[in-house]
Amino acid sequence: MPERILIVEDENSVAEAVAYTLECEGFEVEIAPDGRRALEAFEARPPALVILDLMLPGLSGWQLFNAFRRQADVPVIMLTARAAEADRVAGLEMGADDYVLKPFSMRELVARVRTVLRRSTRAEQQEPDDALTAGDLRVDLGSHEVTLSGRPLSLS
Ligand code: CA
Prior knowledge:
Elements: E1 4-8, H1 12-24, E2 28-32, H2 35-44, E3 49-53, H3 61-71, E4 76-80, H4 85-93, E5 98-101, H5 106-124, E6 131-134, E7 137-140, E8 145-148, E9 151-153
Parallel strand pairs: 1-2, 1-3, 3-4, 4-5
Antiparallel strand pairs: 6-7, 7-8, 8-9
The chain binds calcium ion.
């Protein structure tokens, strides 16, 4: 079954272009032009991923993001024209899975969608995110810890 992506964007040309590209990549796509309809669509059937424009009429992208997160842990890629570093940092701190600045290339967006979906699928399977294993040896690239059969090794 194709993975469903909810696109929340009031600019029709952007929403249509993104939807077309993702459909060509084999995804099922739903477009919501404002916060109210986005919430309705989300509640009716939580998607595999949300592409969320921050600049929306009515409910802001931030409010919407919080509303989504209260309901289900669906990965969110934020989309915005605002290039401010502060926005990017705030978005990631709030728990957005990725952040794409407009204008963006469709290839870049598709690559990010695939990466975020892969990451969230892996998280569901409860496999370590950034670890290499070989037999009983496990190297955690995030914490820089190396363990052998679960016991930490001290390496220089
Ligand atoms: Ca917009």
